[in-house]
């Protein structure tokens, strides 16, 4: 989407912002680290020489690998590799069995983990809702327990503070064997970011320092509202977002060179007519993938957003908005794409939408695969064998390639209308609901050892 020249202009502007305007740093330890590292510190204002930002970009890994729970490499976050997963701390959920709109509980997070585990094209797990039936101060820890015991896929886990981060790392270490094994084969990345434009809070930077010291991958993301907390122009919003995440990247590298960091931004616009911050707007995709382009230019693994909708229930708007963003994020090469299954501008988590997203992801991956050109696929021999007017149905060449060359839907309907009617004339929404319910009822995730479960419970009880 963005040319190299455009990426370069955005990068140079962000470096100038950090050098001239600077950022507010509200963490004493971070201020000391920045000053010792060569930044200009005036009270809480930190101005960063461009050479130092460029050093941090060179030092940060250009590839971050996340494994599954068993230590097998699962996600290689680099170049244009694109991986999809759900959203995180929605305040409401749609009950997948009853359709009721309600507050999420811990069992719902467990169900999300189970569904992620059983769904093809969902590559990692997030909570889809913050549990409200547990101690609020430890809700993220409970969410991680619910996920890690119900899926072997990598987990992206939000954390409020260092205490939560420590508990989550302790749980993950118990699963991996110890901290060293977790560092070698990480299956969790901590997720947090800035709370305001060019303002980095005490707690946020404490989490950066914690993750870097422990060698745990983390996502450092900024949340911006174009025309409100960021410039109204897409380019200006990306500049501010890049400047924001460069602060976190620099701090992590000053703490521990080579600390694994994934950067990104969640962008939205201010819909003043309705008083909302939409997630289905085209500008959300435009700015998010623009940010990913710039991060790929810098060879920093990217975190983005797709698969969400502003719709309130399963309808055409849901399908249109979510599929468009899934396609755009994938085609633009965002590495770690969260947000699948989010409705109502991020307030509500829907497992039905998460299931619907797998079709859009499958189609996107087929398009991204492109047209492979080699001697066998050029088909010179079979064209000559069939001759003009013939057909290719019985050819060995056709039998060899038709399954791999064509994408086959799991949920979309291609039946003739008579067959579709005979099967109940079910809508896409009905098929999605049935698929979600079937996985929830029948899928059996791989269990952890009882000894490991006991260790996890002890950590959660103390959180």
Automatic annotation (TrEMBL):
It holds the Pfam family MTTB. The keyword Methyltransferase applies. The keyword Cytoplasm does not apply. InterPro entries: MttB-like_sf (IPR038601), MTTB_MeTrfase (IPR010426). GO terms for molecular function: methyltransferase activity. Keywords: Methyltransferase, Transferase. GO terms for biological process: methanogenesis; methylation. Belongs to the trimethylamine methyltransferase family. This is Trimethylamine methyltransferase.
């Amino acid at each position: 989407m963005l040319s190299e020249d455009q990426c370069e202009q955005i990068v140079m502007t962000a470096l100038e912002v950090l050098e001239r305007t600077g950022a507010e740093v509200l963490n004493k330890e971070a201020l000391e680290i920045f000053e010792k590292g060569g930044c200009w510190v005036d009270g809480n204002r930190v101005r960063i020489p461009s050479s130092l930002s460029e050093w941090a970009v060179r030092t940060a890994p250009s590839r971050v690998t996340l494994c599954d729970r068993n230590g097998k490499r699962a996600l290689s976050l680099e170049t244009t590799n694109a991986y999809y997963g759900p959203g995180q701390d929605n305040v409401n959920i749609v009950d997948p069995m009853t359709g009721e709109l309600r507050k999420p509980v811990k069992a719902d997070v467990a169900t999300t983990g189970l569904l992620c585990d059983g769904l093809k094209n969902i590559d990692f797990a997030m909570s889809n809702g913050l549990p409200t039936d547990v101690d609020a101060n430890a809700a993220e820890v409970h969410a991680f327990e619910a996920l890690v015991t119900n899926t072997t896929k990598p987990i992206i886990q939000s954390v409020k503070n260092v205490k939560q981060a420590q508990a989550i790392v302790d749980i993950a270490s118990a699963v991996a064997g110890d901290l060293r094994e977790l560092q070698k084969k990480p299956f969790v990345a901590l997720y947090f970011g800035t709370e305001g434009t060019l303002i980095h809070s005490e707690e946020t930077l404490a989490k950066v320092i914690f993750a870097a010291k422990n060698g745990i991958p983390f996502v450092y993301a900024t949340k911006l509202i174009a025309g409100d907390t960021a410039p109204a122009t897409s380019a200006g919003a990306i500049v501010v977002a890049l400047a924001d995440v460069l602060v976190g990247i620099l701090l992590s590298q000053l703490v521990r060179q080579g600390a694994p960091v994934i950067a990104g931004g969640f962008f939205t616009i201010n819909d003043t007519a309705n008083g909302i911050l939409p997630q289905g707007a085209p500008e959300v995709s435009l700015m998010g993938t623009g940010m990913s382009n710039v991060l790929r230019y810098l060879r920093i693994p990217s975190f983005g957003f797709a698969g969400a909708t502003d719709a309130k229930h399963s309808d055409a708007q849901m399908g249109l908005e979510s599929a468009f963003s899934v396609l755009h994020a994938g085609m633009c090469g965002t590495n770690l794409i969260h947000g699948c299954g989010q409705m109502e501008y991020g307030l509500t988590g829907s497992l039905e939408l998460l299931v619907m997203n797998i079709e859009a992801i499958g189609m996107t991956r087929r398009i991204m695969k492109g047209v492979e050109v080699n001697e066998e696929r050029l088909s010179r021999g079979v064209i000559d064998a069939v001759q003009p007017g013939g057909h290719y149905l019985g050819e060995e060449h056709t039998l060899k390639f038709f399954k791999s060359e064509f994408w086959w839907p799991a949920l979309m309907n291609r039946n003739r209308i008579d067959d579709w009617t005979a099967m109940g004339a079910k809508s896409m929404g009905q098929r999605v609901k049935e698929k979600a319910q079937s996985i929830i009822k029948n899928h059996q995730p791989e269990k952890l050892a009882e000894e490991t479960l006991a260790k996890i419970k002890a950590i959660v009880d103390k959180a």
